[in-house]
Amino acid sequence: MADLEELGKRLYKQGEGFDERKIPPDLARDREEHRVAWQKEPEPLLDSLKRKKALLWLGIFMLVFGGGIFLFFQFYGFNAFLNIQAVKVEIVGDKEIRSGDRISWQVRVTNANNIAIEEAVLVFNYPEGSTPLLGQKPEGVFRNRQNLNTINPGESVTQTYNAYVFGARGSSKQVTAVLEYRPKGSSATFGKDASFTLNIARSPVTIALDIPENLRIGQTMEFEIRYNSQSDKDLNNLSIQLLMPEGFQYDSANPAPLADNSKRFGSQKTLGWYIGSLKPAQDGVIKIKGKISGSELEPQNFQVLLGVMLPDNITISAYDSTVASVVLHSPFLAISILAKGQKTYITFPGDQIPFEISWKNNLPVSINDAILEMRMDSLSVDMRSLRVDNGFFRDATKSLVWNAGSNPDFKSIPPGASGKVQFDFKTKSSFPLEPDDQRPVITLGPTFKSNSIIAGFEGVDTGGKDMMDIKVSSKLQLSVRALYFDAPIPNTGPMPPRVGSETTYTITWSLANMVNDVDNVVVTSSLPPYINFKNIFVPANSNLTYDQNTGELQWKLGRVPAGTGFLTPAMQISFHVGLVPGEDQVGTAPILVTDAKVTGKDNFTGVDLSSLAPKKTIDLQDDPRAGFQQKKVAP
Fold first, then answer.
1. CB–CB of 587/601 below 8 Å?
2. Buried b (16+ CB within 10 A) or exposed e, 528-539
3. Between β-strands 346-347 and 468-472, what pairing exists: parallel, antiparallel or unpaired?
4. Residue ranges matching CATH 2.60.40.680 in the chain
5. Per-residue pLDDT tens over the stretch 146-176
6. How far is it, in rounded angstroms, from Cα 297 to Cα 316?
7. In the chain, is it the N or the C terminus that has fewer CB atoms within a 10 Å radius of its CB?
8. pLDDT of residue 33
9. What is the pLDDT of residues 464-488, one digit of tens each?
10. What are the residues whose beta carbons fall under 8 Å from the beta carbon of 193, sequence distance 6 or more?
11. Considering the domain 205-329 in this protein, what is its CATH number?
């Protein structure tokens, strides 16, 4: 420390000097000499790892690729590529044909290679609408499979295929052929295909639909099917089939169809006529009448086919067919009916149904003295329950009427004006029917028109129509009785039941069905854990089962015909149960059987039906001989 202080004094003293340093400071080191040659900088560790990883993947890829090439040639043979390119399949035939004619095709297979092909198989697919020369058309795709075996180098093989081809004029058909083969020396199978398109330019008989293009919703329409022979010889065994849209309600035809599937639910609506034979130049016409319905601007397609009916009596091999489409427009005086706000409705006996009829004037002019009339099939209606707002019931015509006298709005209706009328009624509570009786349907047919001449529309049917069919569904009625005295199965044990002693009871289920046949009917219930199922029931052949683990009872009845319990005896079963009361049940009325439920499906309406019957206890309300003191457990 003294040396530093002395040095400080000398530093600021005038005239003082310092000797030269004897040891150079560490901070001032000599520079290193520059290297003459460039040297590579050390590579970062991360880049080195990436390069090694890339080289590893490249090596794996080359190994897999090389192995794949080796296996390919080991498996397919070293002539595989050449074999694929050298095999040819060609189809030769007429490009324009006449519907129903016998048609031939030649399929030529050429092996233009220097090695043979083996196990060659040729599959020929006939065009849609073709039938074999002999026998029936097979189900599914109509095809032929032919073994060609070995085809030597430079060799060609030709196969000929024949069929009758049906189809509409102007339509195109396609045939295809596929060759499957294995090059000699290879274990792989290859394929080669070819296709050929032909056009049906002519037909021995033609068919046409003369049908209006634009129709009003709900309008009754008439149209014609016209057919004509173009053949120079007689044509035999001819049939016509008409496919109709869902919105068309067939009414009548002249001549009447031989087959009528126009009302078949859930399937294509069809009509069928057997024409028989047509002589050269002979023609014919069929007139059809019905009503068209649907949505605004909705197209409705009709298709008609003329040809030979196949043995299934469903499919036609068509010489000719055509499709016509009609477009629907709102009627001039539109009308629409709803039941409980629904266009399609199914009711039940005793059901109260509110209705609403909407109307609208779509004409560009006003109408005067409008009348809305609705005819109704009243056989299933309880007429005493009928209520009509601003209208009345006309007994002579069995119809509801709204006119200018009952509804002031109908005196004069301007263009675009609309409104609604309402009514309601109940279906009959009881109308038992035999199984062969006609099923109950309430048909409602409202119409809307003017009783005055409409300027500019003289002679034009401006009225609007609608239709609603309400099916009446059946109703299953299940009753349960618990008996001790005068029961179908004799009972034993003390009455009233006593603790520790068994008393038996008889449970009787009775089932009634009013309107329609009901399928898959099953009654289910259960026994409490303290109740014993005695496995005694009558009739003895009843399908009654008991599950000891769950206590469930199940009675399977299958189909229950309409009128059961009304026109014929109810279906009934009785079974035996036993009760051994405990001390905790003294003074109570224990449950013998729980609530019973019956289920089934209405065969006419398709509705799932169900009904409940209440539980039964030992108070025996259904047994008049059971005294008051016998309805509870005694000590």
1. no
2. eeebebbeebee
3. parallel
4. 205-329
5. 999 999 998 999 999 998 888 878 888 899 9
6. 31
7. N
8. 44
9. 888 899 999 999 999 999 999 989 9
10. 89, 176, 177, 178, 179
11. 2.60.40.680
Extract the tokens encoding 409: 């709005």
CATH class for the domain made up of 476-630 = mainly beta
Q: Tokens 């083969």 identify what position? A: 181
- Encoded tokens for 341: 């706000």
Distance CA 617, CA 594 (A): 9
Q: Which of 376, 358, 600, 581 is nearest to 476 (CA)?
A: 600
Nearest C-alpha neighbor of 563 from the set 404, 399, 437? 437
Give the Cα separation of 400 and 253 in Å (integer): 30
What is the share, in percent, of the chain residues with pLDDT greater than 90? 54
pLDDT-derived band at 553 (thresholds 50, 70, 90) equals very high
Our CA dihedral for 483, 486, 488, 492, rounded to 10 degrees, sits at: 70
pLDDT at 610 over 90: yes
Q: For domain 333-472, which architecture applies?
A: Sandwich (2.60)
Of 347, 341, 305, the residue nearest 323 (C-alpha): 305
The C-alpha R_g of the chain, in whole angstroms, comes to 46
Q: What is the homologous superfamily of the domain 83-201 according to CATH?
A: Immunoglobulins (2.60.40.10)
At 104, the amino acid letter reads S
Residue 504, strand partner residues: 578
Does the pLDDT of residue 14 top 60, yes or no?
A: no
pTM (predicted TM-score): 0.57
Say if CB 533 and CB 555 are below 8 A apart.
Answer: no
Where are the CATH 2.60.40.10 domain residues in the chain?
A: 83-201, 333-472
Q: Is the dihedral of CA 15, 16, 21, 25 positive or negative?
A: negative
